[in-house]
Amino acid sequence: MSHKAPIKFFSGKASLYLADKIARNYGQELGKSSVIQFSDGEFQPCFDESVRGCVVFVIQSTFPPSDNLFELLLMIDAAKRASAYKVVAVVPYLGFTRQDRKDKPRVSIGAKLVADLLSTAGISRIVTMDLHADQIQGFFDVPVDHLYASSIFVPYISKMNLENLVVAAPDMGGTKRANAYSRFLNSEMVICYKLRKKANYVDEITIIGDVKDKNVVIVDDMIDTAGTVLLAADLMMQTGANSVRVVATHPVLSGQAVEKIEKSAISEVVVTDTIPLKKQSEKITVLTVADLFAKVIDKVYNYQSISSTFIV
After folding, report:
1. For residues 292, 148, 170 and 99, what is the CA-based torsion angle, rounded to 10 degrees?
2. Of 36, 194, 263, 278, which has the maximum CB count within 10 A?
3. CA 194 to chain centre
4. Coil, strand, or helix at residue 278?
5. Is 218:241 a contact under the CB 8 Å cutoff?
6. Of the listed 194, 260, 283, 299, which one is catalytic?
7. Segment 238-285, tens digit of pLDDT
8. Does residue 263 have an active-site annotation?
C-alpha cells in the first residue's frame, strides 16, 4: 500500500468500558458495531461502518463466559471478510492461559488452542498484558506485543513510600516477576511455597525469607479465588509483618473472593481494569491500563519500538 491505511477501533460487548477509554486516550472514537442475537443464544457481531483497507484494532478481554472469546473470534473474521487491511487483536486479559502445558495426563493445552483460534480467525498481531507465563508468546505464529502492568504498578508502589518494603512472590512460578519488582523498588524479596493438591485450593503455604517488621507487597499476574494471597497474608501477619498488600494485574475475583478480601488482614489490593470488577470494595484500588494500551497501539500503528514502555 502506498498510502497509510486508516486506523479504526472496535470493541466486543465485555470490554466496551475499557475500549472506549483506550480509543479516547488515542484521540479517536470507537467504531460502530452491533451484535445480532438469536433466540437460541447464538449471536452475530456486525461492523456498522466500512473497514475496507483499514488497520482494525479489535479490543476484547476473554474472561468467562467463553462467549467473550468467541465474540472476539467472530469480529476478527468479520473484519477480514470485510477487506480490512490488517486486524490486530487487543486482548488485555487473555483467558485459558493457565492451561499452558500438560501438567498431568490427558489434559488440553488451552493456551495453545486459543492462540491457534486467533491466528485462524485472521489476526496480524496480538497486543496483550501479563500472560500467565511468558513462553505463551511462542504459541502464536504472529507478532505478540506483551505488555507488563509493572509500568503502572511500580510508580504506584513507589509513591506509598513504605519503609522496610519487601516484595513477595505468591508461588515459585512468580519469582521472576517478584525479582523484577524488587530490583526496581530496591527492596528485599521473599517467596511463598504452596502445596496444592487440586485446582483453586491451597493445602498449605510456607514463607521463604524474613517478613518480621516488614511492609509486604505480594505481586501476581491475576487474583482469582484469592486463596493463596489470603493464606500468605495471614501467615505473614502472624510472623510479624507490619502490613500486607497485593498487586495483581487481572482481577478475576471469582466466587466469594471480594468478601474474603474485605474480612482479611490485607490492607489493599491493587488491580487494573483489564477485567471489570464484579463488586466494588474499599480495599480494592483499580488503576487503568487505557493510556498504556493507547500509547502501544500508536507505536504499533506507526512501526515504532514499544520496548521503552516496559519496566519489567
Report:
1. 110
2. 194
3. 23
4. coil
5. no
6. 194
7. 999 999 999 999 999 999 999 999 999 999 999 999 999 999 999 999
8. no
